[in-house]
């Protein structure tokens, strides 16, 4: 939605730092279903003026986001080194799943699989997450020019009615399941409807 006030802060400030004002196009909520087609129309217009344009769908489901999402794992490993700590269990959420998938793939590519990744599924289901993971894995292999031979991080599948406790002395779930090679690794900790 077009902001009602003219105060520039947060994400809006970031957007204004990246783009000139004339390149920012706001949509009313009623126009959201047409957002992608409007973006494609604008892209075609800009391309006709000689600009290179890439439209990334909402949620970032596109191969061009790989360098950014894969960097999450490197950031995590740098933090571990700076703190002299190893995070054996990492909790994250999943809307479209792109950031969580990037973390999983990045850890695999860096060979840092001695941990369990717990993903709170906020949208979608396990089948959708698996399909997206498989697609990003193919895109990563195409980017690297070879298949990823590094095993997945450990998986922990849990279905919960309540979120896990913030600090627990015992594992959040005792049903750790082995993961067969080539299958996506993630933890199902909570599903919010």
Written account of the structure:
The protein is mainly α. The protein is 37% helix and 8% strand. It is built from five helices and three strands, in the order αααβαβαβ. The chain has a three-stranded parallel β-sheet, with helices on one face. Helix 4 links the parallel strand 1 (89-94) and strand 2. The longest helix has 19 residues, at 126-144. The two termini are 24 Å apart.
Summarize the structure.
The protein has 193 residues and is mostly helical. 37% of the residues lie in helices and 8% in strands. Helix 3 (66-83) crosses helix 4 and helix 4 (98-109) crosses helix 5.
Into which percentage range does the β-strand content fall?
Answer: 5-15%
Q: Can you summarize the main beta sheet?
A: 3 strands, parallel
| Fraction in helix | 25-40%
Cα radius of gyration in angstroms = 20 Å
Total DSSP E strands: 3
Structural class, please?
A: mainly alpha
Q: In one word, what is the shape?
A: globular
Kindly report how far apart the N and C termini lie: 24 Å
Q: Uncertain runs with pLDDT below 50, 5 residues or more?
A: 155-193
How many H/I helical runs? 5
Going across the major beta sheet, what is the strand order? 1-2-3
Chain-averaged pLDDT: 76
Task: Spell the H/E element sequence.
Answer: HHHEHEHE
């Amino acid at each position: 939605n077009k902001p009602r006030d003219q105060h520039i802060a947060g994400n809006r400030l970031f957007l204004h730092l990246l783009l000139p004002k004339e390149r920012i196009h706001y949509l009313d909520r009623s126009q959201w279903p047409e957002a992608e087609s409007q973006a494609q129309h604008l892209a075609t217009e800009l391309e006709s003026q000689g600009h290179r344009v890439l439209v990334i769908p909402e949620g970032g489901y596109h191969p061009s986001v790989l360098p950014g999402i894969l960097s999450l794992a490197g950031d995590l490993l740098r933090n571990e080194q700076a703190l002299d700590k190893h995070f054996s269990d990492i909790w994250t959420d999943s809307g479209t799943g792109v950031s969580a998938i990037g973390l999983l793939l990045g850890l695999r590519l860096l060979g840092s699989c001695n941990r369990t990744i717990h993903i709170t599924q906020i949208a979608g289901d396990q089948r959708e997450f698996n399909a997206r993971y498989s697609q990003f894995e193919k895109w990563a292999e195409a980017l690297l020019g070879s298949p990823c031979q590094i095993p997945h991080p450990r998986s922990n599948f849990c279905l919960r009615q309540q979120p896990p406790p913030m600090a627990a002395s015992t594992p959040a779930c005792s049903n750790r399941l082995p993961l067969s090679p080539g299958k996506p690794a993630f933890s199902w900790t909570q599903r919010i409807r």
